[in-house]
Amino acid sequence: MTIVNKLARKELIDMVPYQSARRLFASSSATEGKVWLNANEASGSGNYQISSTSINRYPDFQPEKLISAYSQYSEVSAENLLATRGADEGIELIIRTFCTAYQDSIIICPPTYGMYAISAENHGADIIKVPLNETMSLDLAGLQAQVGKAKVVFLCSPGNPTGNLLSQQEIKTALELFAESAIVVVDEAYIEFSPEQTVASWLKTYPHLVVLRTLSKAFALAGLRCGFTLANKEVITMLSKVIAPYPISAPVADIASEALAKPGLGQMNQRVLETNTLRAHLATWLAKQSWCSEVFSSDANFILFRCQNNELKDFIFNCLVENDILIRDQSKQQNLENCLRISIGSERELSLLQQTITQSFTNNYAAKATAETLSQEN
Ligand SMILES: *Cc1c(COP(=O)(O)O)cnc(C)c1O
After folding, report:
1. Domain annotation covers residue 50
2. pTM recorded for the entire structure
């Protein structure tokens, strides 16, 4: 046994880290030239100014310019905001703050975002699964049965990888079920694609509500690592005890503040409109394909669809990989057999994807027909 294996926490030795889209493909040859439709990133990058004049100083714990810009954008008071290194750090902080290791549990509703379980596992919190029902809405009876058994409940709306919003009514019911016993997190990483559906204004009514936001998706800043936790002041105070002392570096604060200023918000809104249009076109195209058995409705910057069978699912995934187009296989998730997810990239990227699939099917059938002819001739 190596010294590291001897000393490390036992459960980490066999633990598999989050298989991010980057990790899955990063090392495979050059990343340039590839079409990345696997991580729900935006397709184009902005152009930002950063200043290095005070880079010799530690940044503010919570850069004021950034918090005030996000407060204005979100219509949530500054005291109810915590800027984090992506929404992922918000997830981790909530678990570390509310769950005692090897004692407390979280509830997740699969199919859902993978980091809730990874962060829980990492921290030694147990995971209770209450799967979404067939229409990808909450199983409220299933949740009710778990009241009192978990400290944190993670809801994702719009859901990843499902794409659909949870109805405000079912979120409200979940909040009421857990009013006495758990923090209810509503992960709104994709809320900019249907902003009227946010529950951020409910923070005043529900002291146990936490809303997660990010600049990684609609704001096209996944590389920046900047997210926000929106919550009751008491929750923010508690999370602030756990977070690192300087979570937001000065260049991050500069860029994020610029993205949240008026022109940045205008570009974000434009990007959302374009994405929603491209998504509708792709959904229509997918629904017409013979190999596609189901297209899930999406309120986000990606589409989940189901293939007729596993063989077709692999064929589509692999023909795209061979042509340097990367999408995400979601077929291992609960109830998502044969499902793939495509991020809404640029118009060019999506038409390349459609052409590639069409061409690969044509070639494959031509090859099969030739093989049959040859075997008949022999
Ligand atoms: C992408 C994503 C996140 C993480 O966002 P970061 O801010 O990049 O850490 C959180 N939740 C969901 C549902 C996501 O899809």
Report:
1. no
2. 0.94
Same domain, 151 and 272: no
Q: Is the peptide bond before 111 cis (omega within 30 degrees of 0)?
A: yes
Atom of ligand 1 nearest to the CA of 217: 1
φ/ψ of 83, rounded to 5, equals -80, 135
* 160 in contact with ligand 1, CB cutoff 6 A: yes
Q: What is the pLDDT of residue 367?
A: 78
Q: Determine the Cα angle at 95 with ends 91 and 97, to 5°.
A: 115
- For residues 291 and 160, give the distance between their C-alpha atoms in angstroms, rounded to a whole number: 23
pLDDT at 145: 98
Q: For residues 198 and 15, what is the distance between their CA atoms, to the nearest angstrom? A: 35
- What is the residue range of 134's domain? 64-261
pLDDT less than 70: residues of the chain: 26-32, 377-378
- Regarding whether 209 and 138 lie in a shared domain, the answer is yes
Cα of 373 vs centre of ligand 1, distance in Å, is 51
How far is the CA of 36 from the CAs of 40, 80, 218, 226, 325, in angstroms? 9, 35, 16, 21, 6
